[in-house]
Amino acid sequence: MFTGIVECIGTISSLSTSSSSGTTLTITTPTFLLTDAHLGDSISINGTCLTITSSTPTSFTVGVSPETLRRTNLGRLAQNSTVNLERAVSAATRMGGHFVQGHVDTTATIIGVKEDGEARVFRFRPRDAGVLRFVVEKGYVTIDGASLTVTRVSDDDGEADVGGDGGEEGEKEKGWWEIMLIAYTQEKVVTAGKKVGEEVNVEVDMVGKYVEKSVRGYLEGLDGEGNREGGGVLERMVERIVERKLKGR
Q1: How many CB atoms neighbour CB 78 within 10 A?
Q2: What distance in Å separates the CA atoms of residue 32 and residue 57, rounded to the nearest whole number?
Q3: By C-alpha distance, which of 108, 109, 111 is closest to 166?
């Protein structure tokens, strides 16, 4: 579990792929991050929860599975790429962001960037449009491991007016949300330096997932594993209405 408050930025010092050991990343990091890190500990790399397999005072190595490479942007990293890093929470950690699992739901493409005073606004379009139902204005979303607040969202369509590097004014885009990085945050996360067309890792707020599953199960009459165990609330309501109508004939 993580908070989405990025602790530091690391640099990919080496990347290797082999048929026997798969893909491994070695990341150089400030020494403070590894003072209490041990073999087997979880660490968030661009919002992806991975396991430390070896370490030195200034670097650590993780293995990356094929599934993780398919679902995240880690497969696009190269030597000298920079990544957001955060250690797993402890009992003494202040929850400055929100509950982040490190389980990336999808990636999103940056479709707009513009300056707003000292802040920078990013517009994202997800690869999996289904996650948009969990993205709400003023809610949380995790971008490359950073807990950020959604400032605007369009579930279906909208008029893009991003200007600058984000395209021409009036360009129509469908299914997007925006976040705003203040000047301080721009210095602390790798996302601030990304351009239109680049990808970010996305994890939506897991509370929304649990709420949807619970409400869906209640309304549709599903058990804890998603199997039908009887008529749901809506089905029983319709049955009562039809029954009353038939009796009234």
Answers
A1: 7
A2: 9
A3: 111
Collect all residues with Cβ–Cβ distance below 8 Å to 248 and sequence separation of at least 6: none
Q: How do strand 140-143 and strand 146-154 relate by DSSP bridges?
A: antiparallel
Q: Which two tokens stand for residue 59?
A: 């670097």
Beta strands of the chain (E only): which ranges? 8-18, 22-28, 42-45, 48-56, 59-64, 82-87, 106-116, 119-126, 140-143, 146-154, 158-159, 172-173, 176-181, 199-204
Q: What is the pLDDT of residues 37-78, one digit of tens each?
A: 889 999 999 999 999 999 999 999 999 999 899 999 999 999
Helix, coil or strand: residue 225: coil
Q: How far is it, in rounded angstroms, from Cα 40 to Cα 121?
A: 37
Residue 17 token pair: 């792929």
Q: Is the pLDDT of residue 171 over 90?
A: no
Task: For the chain, give the longest Cα–Cα distance.
Answer: 82
Higher pLDDT, 217 or 54: 54
* pLDDT for the residue 160: 45
Q: Is the pLDDT of residue 211 over 70?
A: yes
Residues whose CB is less than 8 angstroms from the CB of residue 243 and which lie 6 or more positions away in sequence, other chains included: none
Quote the mean pLDDT of the chain: 86
| Long-range contacts formed by 207-212: CB under 8 A, 24+ apart | 207/99, 208/133, 208/134, 208/136, 208/139, 209/134, 212/133, 212/134
Contact between 64 and 53 (Cβ < 8 Å): no
